[in-house]
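As noted in the main text, all predictions were made from sequence alone. Below is one such record, for Threonine/homoserine efflux transporter RhtA.
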Amino acid sequence: MTKARVFFLLLILGTAFWGVSFSLVKVGVGDGSPFIFLAYKFALAALVLAIVFARRLRSLSPRALAAGVLIGLPLLLGNVFQTIGLQHTSVTNSAFITGLDVLIIPLFKWGLFRRPVQGRVWISCGLALLGLYMIVAQNGLRLNVGDLWTMACAVFFAAYVLTVGHFAHRYDPLQTVIVALAFCGAGCGLAGAFDARAIWMPVDMSFWRGIVFAALFATAFMYAVQSSAQRYIAEEKVALTYLCEPVFAALAGVLLLGEALTLRTVIGAGMILSAMVLPEIDLRALRSSGTPRQRIKA
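Prediction:
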C-alpha cells in the first residue's frame, strides 16, 4: 500500500475522531465560552505533540516558525468565525456552509494558483456536497446573518488546507503544525479573555473529558496526520475526507445521544463515500485492461 493510501485512511480515521468529538464537545461546552474550550484544546494538543516530537523541534528554524504562524492564522480565524456564526445560526447551516470548503479549495487552487484540477474531482466535490446536504439539511436551510460569518469560516478553512499544502514540502510538517496549534491556542485564549461567559476552571468533568478527547484525537492526531499527508495527497482530496465528519457525527449521535438514523443520512453518507472513491479510479487503466479481452473475443 502506498504512503498516499495510508495517509488517506488515517485522514478518514481523523474525521471519525472529529465526528465523535462533536457530541462530546456539545455536552462539554454547554452554555460556557467556546473560546475557553478551544484554547485548552489547542494548547493541550500543541503540548502533547511538542513532547512527543521534542527532538524535531530542536531544529526549528525562524522560517519554519513563521510558516507555522502563517498556517495557524487561517486555522484560528476559521475556528473563531465558525464559533461566532454558531451564535447566530443553526448547527445544520453551520455544518453545510463549512462543508463548502470542498468546492472553495479546488476553486482557489485553479483560479488563484493556476494549478490544474481533474474534471472528476469537480464531479466528486459536487456529489459530496449534495451528500452533505442530505445529511445536515433534513428540514431545509434558512439563511441568516450568522451564515455570513460561517461562510468566512469556510473560506479560511480552505485557505488553511492550501497553506499547509504550500509549506508541506518546504519545512518539517510536524514542526509547523505544532507552532500552528500553539498559535491557535494563544489566539483563542485571547478571545476568551473578552468573553463574559468565560470560566477558566470549570468544575464539570464533562468539559475536561471533552478537552482530552478533542485535544488528543481530534486535534493532535488529525492535524499532525494532515500536515504530513499533504506531502502525498492533493488539497482537494483532503477536503473530500473532511466531509466524512458529518457521517461519523451522525453515527456518534445515534450511539452516544440516542438520535435517530434516517434514510436521508444513509443516502448522504453513500454519496460522500462514493465521491471519495471516484477520484481514485484510474479510468485509463480500466480501459487498457479491457483492451486485451476485446482482442481475444475478436
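The two ends are 36 Å apart (CA to CA). The chain has one domain: 3-280. These features were considered when defining construct boundaries for the mutagenesis experiments described in Section 2.9.
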